[in-house]
């Protein structure tokens, strides 16, 4: 197992390097923070920006270098003159907001908030997808199957921003009707609250319910269809029919023989669900007022803060790669034919 993990991590290194190149090029070729700042200065002063100011902006953001030089600086920090860039040195690059904003510190503070939401939503969506997919397969072409299929397609068709806004309004209306503040619809926790891990979890739970449901529904719908199709295929396989012919109870056949094998496609799909949740967190956090990585990246995109956007893309890639590694490990648990040696 250890050898397998090491081998998979080594394989991911070139993939991660490719992710840094792609993240850098996608942002660098589509955004020019220097020109955006020059435009904002002109709008505020009403006068042309001196060339000396433009040169200073380019030097601070390393836009006085070529694209290959900027990438090398961003990755290694070798050749840096300002002391604020180099991923391998733990420096994410300068922010257009100036030295007062440390991108690395912002990411550290906000990542835990986003990870909490994304993990809860992903786990909930996988659990719900497995449950509804299995029920739909076992009750194929029944009213329950059609109902679950309709709900799944409806959730799949609803845009995340509309669904999140709808659930937020429903939570507000429910609170008003009950005369309580059961569902928290703004923020990720009580402002200024301090406590240990469990106390922080209990405090954050009311704030987590509605955003998790909003982020979960979009992800579960697609996975439930995969689970249903996989379960139907396994139920018609020879070894399941043999188990039934031997007189094994149907419930035992479903739980011990069919379900375990049918979970493999869902394990494959899970990292994609994690990536979808990371993308959906951008909208969800903005709607519910979470101070997480998604809301930070959205603001960075709006402001044209290149290095902050690159950081978000790279972190999303690392999260997805980690999910893929976990998925590979689950294969061996679900399918005894797979060995790690």
Short summary of the structure?
Helices cover 75% and strands 1% of the residues.
Give the name of the CATH superfamily of the domain at 107-334.
MetI-like
Q: Which structural class is indicated by helix and strand composition? A: mainly alpha
Helix tally? 13
Strand content: under 5%
Q: End-to-end span in angstroms?
A: 7 Å
Main-sheet strand order equals 1-2
CATH structural fold name of the domain at 107-334 = MetI-like fold
Helix content: over 70%
Would you list the SSEs in sequence order as H and E?
HHHHEEHHHHHHHHH
CATH architecture of the domain at 107-334: Orthogonal Bundle
Report the uncertain regions. Answer: none
Largest sheet report: 2 strands, antiparallel
Query: What Rg, in angstroms, do the CA atoms define?
Result: 24 Å
- Provide the residue-averaged pLDDT: 86
**Total beta strands:** 2
The CATH class of the domain at 107-334 is identified as: Mainly Alpha
Shape: globular
Structure description:
- The protein is mainly alpha-helical.
- The chain has a domain at 107-334: Orthogonal Bundle (MetI-like fold).
- 75% of the residues lie in helices and 1% in strands.
- It is built from 13 helices and two strands.
- Strands 1-2 form a two-stranded antiparallel sheet.
- Helix 5 crosses helix 11 and helix 7 crosses helix 8 (197-235).
Keywords:
341 residues, mainly alpha, MetI-like fold, two-stranded antiparallel ribbon, 13 helices, 2 strands, globular
């Amino acid at each position: 197992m250890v050898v397998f993990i090491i081998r998979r991590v080594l394989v991911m290194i070139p993939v991660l390097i490719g992710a840094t190149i792609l993240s850098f090029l996608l942002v660098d070729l589509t955004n020019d923070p220097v020109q955006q700042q020059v435009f904002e200065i002109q709008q505020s002063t009403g006068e042309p920006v001196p060339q000396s100011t433009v040169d200073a902006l380019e030097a601070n953001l390393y836009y006085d270098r070529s694209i290959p030089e900027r990438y090398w600086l961003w990755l290694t920090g070798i050749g840096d003159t300002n002391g604020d860039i180099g991923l391998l040195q733990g420096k994410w690059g300068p922010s257009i907001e100036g030295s007062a904003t440390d991108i690395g510190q912002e990411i550290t503070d906000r990542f835990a908030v986003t990870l909490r939401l994304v993990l809860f939503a992903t786990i909930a969506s996988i659990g719900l997808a497995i449950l509804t997919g299995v029920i739909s397969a076992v009750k194929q072409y029944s009213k329950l199957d059609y109902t679950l299929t309709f709900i799944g397609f409806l959730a799949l068709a609803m845009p995340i921003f509309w669904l999140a806004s709808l659930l937020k309004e429903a939570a507000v209306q429910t609170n008003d009707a009950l005369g309580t503040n059961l569902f928290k619809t703004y923020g990720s926790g009580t402002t200024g609250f301090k406590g240990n891990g469990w106390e922080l979890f209990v405090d954050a739970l009311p704030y987590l319910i509605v955003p998790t449901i909003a982020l979960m529904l979009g992800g579960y719908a697609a996975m439930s269809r995969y689970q249903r199709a996989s379960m139907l295929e396994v139920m018609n396989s020879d070894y399941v029919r043999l188990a039934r012919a031997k007189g094994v109870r149907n419930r035992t056949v479903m739980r011990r023989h069919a379900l375990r094998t049918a979970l493999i496609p869902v394990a494959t799909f899970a990292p994609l669900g994690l990536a979808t949740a990371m993308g959906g967190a951008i909208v969800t956090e903005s709607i519910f007022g979470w101070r997480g990585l998604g809301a930070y990246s959205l603001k960075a995109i709006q402001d044209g803060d290149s290095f902050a956007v690159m950081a978000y893309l790279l972190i999303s890639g690392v999260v997805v790669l980690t999910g893929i590694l976990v998925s590979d490990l689950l294969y061996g648990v679900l399918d005894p034919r797979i060995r790690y040696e």
